[in-house]
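Field reference: sequence -> structure
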Amino acid sequence: MPLKQHVSIPVPASEEEGKLTQTTHQRDLRGPPGFALVTGVDIAYGKTDIAYCVAVTLSTSNWKPVEVQRVKVQAPMKYMSGMLGFREAPVMIEALLRLTHVPDVILIDGNGEAHPRRFGSACHVGLSLDHPTIGIGKNFPAGCGNPRGTSFAKAKRGNRTALMVGPHVAGYEIVTQEGTNPIYVSVGNRLGLDEAVALTIKATPFYRLPEPIRAADQEAAKFRLAEEGQ
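Structure field:
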């Protein structure tokens, strides 16, 4: 789509008029799009490989739930190392498609580009939905290189170390709370890595895990318990 003039700012007749015009229009400037709604998605597995998937959308203003959607289905395939996206993404997508509030970004319990072929679960979901996604790994991603020189017990909040897949920076190992183990952040789709890291830090005001992932994890465990009783 070609550019078009949205606001006309005339040449002022005087210095004072120019100052007033600048002050007035400064309030109309817009920064980059923010993240008002963020959805976390997680899966708990039950008997006979039943997948209990929950998508929880939170408001970033107070990290309170806006919407919860649940899906109970048979996992589409058995676990295979490096192929988790094929097993989990279809289930996650089914839950996400039920959302009535469109989130600004989706956090996936799994990896994005921090993957041997730089295409983890968050990439599966992000590409399938053509939507911004971030992978949040709880454990060190297979296929990634990392100096692992950080003493996590002494690391400060926000400390990060690059996760390398060959010559590529595929994500970051990030300390979100002092005295806790790190998490592993990588892009799934339609975001820059620095943007993904900044949002992840913002989304971890209290605990190690981002609030949307933490909420989805808890809700998925409750869902499985309610259905299976143990």
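Note: Strands lie at 37-45, 50-59, 65-74, 105-109, 133-137, 160-165, 168-174, 183-189.
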